Every structure is written in structure tokens, then in C-alpha cells.
Records
---
Amino acid sequence: MSTITNNPQPPYPEELEELRAIADIQFYGAGDVFLPSNIQVIRSKTTQRIRAVLLDGKILATLRASDYRFILRIWGGIRLNNIIDYPFLRVIVSNKYSGYIIEGGNVFTKHIVFMDPHIRPGDEVLVLNEDLEVIAVGRAILPGWISTLFSRGEAVRVRESIKVVRNEGYKPSIYRGF
């Protein structure tokens, strides 16, 4: 489920600045736009460190405790798709395979039409169909420059697809400005 009811609260100004700096590094300078001042955060009950970032009750991303990097969720991917320049962090898959990916399948190299050559293994990526609509978010397994050279193997491990948000009335054309 892509909403949280676990006592979200606004971040402290220093925390917002830190979150934006992390997003700037990870998402090509999109920190200020990706994380507006009206975001809310969910904190760990034991450590009080930030674990999730929400906007309008929807999870944009969670923070990995080990390295404090953002782990994109589908609403964050939809938002990021409208913010960062094309083709950064994007993997475009054939419409023929998009149904498989929406159902939760991973992206294999044979599915890829285009992959940003600057993607490194471990990067958070947006998976788009050929109509350039976000269908999933996940973690890159292969570097972008090499993925189109292979015809076998996993390229992106999908974390969450739009199947999760379809129950909430998601329509790609509505959220172009989200």
C-alpha cells in the first residue's frame, strides 16, 4: 500500500535541508523541487531517524538506514519523472512487456528499448513504457551503457509498479504536474 498513517510530521528545517541535499546528489539536482517545504516524514520509533518521506499522504521515498540513500516508491517515481530532464535515470521498455512489469516482473535486457547510459548498478531508476509513462520504479542491476548490448539477464529489479496505485485512481495523464 502506498499511504502511511503512522504519525507523519513535518521535518525540522535542518532535516529538510539534509533530505534535499541527498536528493540533489541522487537525482541530478532535483532536491528542492522533489521535496517541497510541505513534506512530512515518518521517524523510526527507536532511533527517531527519518525512515519515509510523504507528500499529500503518499510515500515518495524511504531512506535506507545503512547508507541514507533514497529508495524510490511509485509516487516518488511519478513525481521525479516530471522533474528531472529526459533521459536521466530512465529505462524505457517495450509496450509488449509493460504488462508483465506492471504485474510485478523485473526488467530484463530483452525488454529494454532505451536505458540512460549514465545509470550505474544500484541506482534508483524509473521504468517507463514507450508512451513515456511511469510503470514502475526499481534498482538497476546493470550499468546503462551495457544493458542494450545483452539479450539475456536482469537489468532492473522492480520494487513497485503502478499496479499498487491503480486502486487509488491513478491515471498517467492527470499526474504530469504532480
Note: The CA atoms of residues 90 and 126 lie 5 Å apart.
---
Amino acid sequence: MSWRDQVTNKGSFRGAEFYIDGSDRTSGRNNAVHEFPQEQLPVIQGLSPKPKRFRVDCFVIGSDYISARDALIEALDQQGKGVLVHPYYGRLEVYVDGEYSINERKSEGGKATFSIPFILATPPEELQVSANEDDNLKASADAAHQAAVEAFAADFQVAGQPSWIAEAAQETVNSVLGVISDVMRPIAKAKTAVATLQAQVEAVKSAVESLIYSPKELAGQVIGLFDSMAELADEPSKAIESYTAFFAPVPTLPSSPSVVQSRIDTNDAATSTFMKQAAVASTAKATTNVEFANQNQITALSDNVDARSDEIILATEHDEVIDSFQQLRTDLAVYLRSVTPGLARLVNYTVPSSTNSLSLAFDLYGDIDRVEEIVELNNLIDPSFIAEGTILQVLNV
């Protein structure tokens, strides 16, 4: 197994970076149990929450792993609390909770494995959020875009190839541009915005014949189209939804006895791979402009980007792509954690007796102005009658 197969999620403590194998967490509450004579059941008195503890299993790896190992050891040995950046939990302020362990084996040369116990020092909602976390996420998205461009330029080759390879490449790129044209139409109601986007696509189409000989420039033009979609969309979430058209798994490269067909297949795979990488990076970048209505939206977006990033990392042989998408998902987790506090969560609610949306809004929230929220969340066809036993999704009170 290569080291690339082992790399999953990137994190850091006091700025010392590492890769995460996994994480275990314990939590709960302290209770006082009072037992009385002749009573079968005790009286439970709820006290304070238990301290939140978790263990991070992580590693540093590479030809210069010793420097990374020593930097992490120095960070762990410092007194007081420090900032942990965790790909699952975001940005946390923690203490090292007792002894940590380090494991190095000759059979795993170039790798040091840590098992580190932490205890939460500050509730996440009280942690001071850095003002430039959105800038960090945008910078990571730009870096991921650049890595995707470089990888595409290395894998996509037309120059010096037979003419039918160029013709096949042109057909593939035009097909991709056609998909972009289709998915961008619904993102803006203003005719001028739609016309602007379509004109930009047509401009790239008209230059495809020459752009296929300059893959870096071609890739840059596509990223420019994605940027325009985010800028001209009525809402950033609409642009994000359009990017998902390119999230599909990249087909496995078939083996072909023909050198020419093999090159055509490789170019097609490079194009699909680049489109997926560019779309995921653009999704993360556009996230900084989204106004989330609830925590469920954040969870869904985070899970989607995490899953697609995993696919990208496992499928590529380009180190820059691996590093940039590891950093992208870490910075996305940190950013999303910063905007989560204060947002409500969608929960299931079973209607106890037949009612209507107006009465339900008052019963749940004491506010009839939230009736539209209930109707939209559940796509109610007849808001004037909601049958007993109907399961709705509502924002927790």
C-alpha cells in the first residue's frame, strides 16, 4: 500500500500539521443518584455535563517526516490550551489530556504515528472565530483549482498527436461546455445575467479548436465560467447546485490495444477528472457567500464535499492535488464550524391532531408569520389541512 492510500484527513495542533486516521469521542452528563428505602427506582438529579474528551489517532509521513514529528511533539509539550484544527469537528480550543504515544516502525519508514488524548477547553460556540477564515477557504479553493489545472495539463495531450485525436478532444470539450450551458440557465432569472453567461460559454466554444493545444489555458477558461456562475447566480446555492452536475464518478480508464484509442481515452478521463476537481473547489469557494438557513444544510454540503474530495484524492497520482484537496476540506470544516452556532436544526415532528399550517405555526413557535417556512420545508400542497399523524420537518424551537 502506497502512502497515498493511507492519507485521509488533514489537521493541525498549534500549527503543527498531521494526517488523521480516526477519532474517538466520549461525552455525557454527571448525575447524582439518590436511593431511598422501600423505593424500587432511584431519584436521578442531573448535574453538570461531563468534560468532553476525545482521542485523535494521527500520523506524519514523507521524506521529511522527522521535522513534522518534532514540530508536533513541540506543540503537544507546550503548557496551556491550544487550537486544534480537526477535519470532523472544525476549530477547537483544547488541552492535551495526559500522556500521548508515538509509534515508529522500521517497516513503516518515513512515518510516525501518534495517539493523542484531548479535552475540550472552550465550547465551540464561545471560541473566537478568526475573521479571515472565509479568506483561508477561498485561498484553499484557488490552490485546489491551480493544482487541478496543472494535473490536467500533465494528463491531457493533443500537441504532436494525429489529427483524429485532436478531433476527439474537441468533441469531448464541446460536450462539457454543452453541459455547462445547460446547467447555468436556471441559476439566474435576469435575462441579462443568463445572456452574459451564455455569451461566455460561446466565446470558449469558438476557441476550442486552438485551446485544446493549450490545456492550461483551456482549464483556466472553464474555471472562469464557474466563477461567473457564482457571481451572476441569483443565489450562491444555485451555483453550487449546478456544480454538482460534474460530481459523478469518473469512469475507469479502459485498456485499449490501440495507442491512438488509449490517448483518446486518457484525454477523456483527464477532462472528466478536471471538471470534477474544478467543480468541488468552486463549491467550497462559493460556500463563503451562502446564508445557511439551518444546520442540516451545512451538514449536507459538508458531507457532499468530503465524499467527493475523498474520491478525488484516492483517484489521483498528483501530489499537489492530494495536498490541496486535503487542505480544502480542512479549511471548509473550519469555516462551516464558524457559521454553525445559532442555526436551528431540522427535526421530524408528528402532527398530534388534524390542523392547518397557520395554527401549527402558532402552536410550534407562537408566530403565525412562520407559516410559509413550514409550507416550503414540507412542500405542502394544501396548507389548510394537515392530517393527524403527518410527519413534517420543522426547525427545532
Note: The longest helix spans residues 259-287.
